[in-house]
Amino acid sequence: MTFELPKLDYAKNALAPIMSEETLDLHHGKHHQTYITNLNNFIKDTDMAGMSLEEIVHNSSKDKSKVGIFNNASQHWNHELFWKCMKPNGGGSMPKKLEDRIKSDLGSVEEFKKQFIQAGITQFGSGWCWLSIDENNKLVVSKTPNAENPLIHNMKPILGCDVWEHSYYVDYRNRRPEYLENFFEKLVNWEFVESHL
To answer: What is the mean pLDDT of the chain?
Structure first.
């Protein structure tokens, strides 16, 4: 299987000014494309060439000799989710099913927001913050370093925010907390997140 860069569901200027066209052009068109190119090169003529992306992520995560495959496969998977988690004029109030589930599992929407943004702020260096469904079918907030994602910890991520510097530095410089606040309040596609419950 040859992996390809997914098309965005919105124009590259549609998330501005929260996420600029320049950021999306670099992040989607250059960074994400590089992960895909590297992944295709790594798996060519190997037993992983016929696997799904999730299978590659799982299998390569267990083998230290396949760290290059894992990093690029996992980043491809992470970004495919990330683009879907945003929409123009996103954020705002959540659909009732998602809101009720968050209140049940995390206490309140405000508590969820606090935990999610704190996870992103406190992820040292590059990485991600997540809302996932764990093995007990409960919503949990977590953070992971570099390319790692909750899939390899037997969880199902339903919302992810990229906190690698390339995702926010053009627009926010070193102001990661402001980026995370704006992502949560003005970009998240809550209907997409709810669809994964």
So the answer is: 98
